[in-house]
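Sample entry (268 residues):
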Amino acid sequence: MTRDTVERILEWLSGTDIEVVDLTGGTPEMIPDFRYMVQSIRGMGREVMDRCNLTILNEPGYEWVAEFHAEQGVHIVASMPCYCPENVNAQRGEGVFDSSIKALQTLNGLGYGTEPTLQLDLVYNPNGAKLPPEQTELEADYKRELKAHFDIVFNKLYAITNMPIARFTSYLKRQGGYAEYMQLLLDNFNPASIDGLMCRDTISVGWEGDLFDCDFNQQMGMQHGLKSNPDRLWNLNLDNWKQRPIQTSAHCYGCTAGQGSSCGGATV
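Predicted structure, serialized as tokens:
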């Protein structure tokens, strides 16, 4: 994301009453103007959430990440697929669990998970083609195990369903399980999940300012406007956006199955 795009986003944001800016990647901290963007948003009095890849805290050149987040009061949402090393390393790669634990201990040392202004939430994704367990019960398991074995504390756990898109879809098709997983989502469709979906109250903005209804549509390239001339955030009238129909496709069944799944975890 270029500085020009950052500036255009900030200018547009300043003219709205939007309360929360949720930064995600990959690893958003690698954006050259990440610190400038966060400081500017916080200067407007808005909340900043960072979908943080915990391992970045231990990479050379990124030693500043933890303390910067604490200084700015950034709400951290971090992926932690399980409290067992075998499951995390199988899903994310060898060594990821140990690096994530070290990062969480660093964040706890700065007050994350204990200080009211430093919220630390974790994200669970199932390891494979199944729905997440009940979020409240799973959160209790996470808190018990991480505290007992690593003296780690956190605020909330988000249980998020694996979306049938991108790499996960490729994996399912290689295993011959794509149709079975889609049937699982269809069989567990829950209309009560719809009101809490991210597409109902979020504008997903791409790195060039393109507009999407949710992060998953962004990954699918389902932007508003033409492919050759996409709509940009800085040209958007917020009232008009609220009236636009939400673009949907088969992957939306991932968000509406079981207890529901959104950027804040279960929706019901």
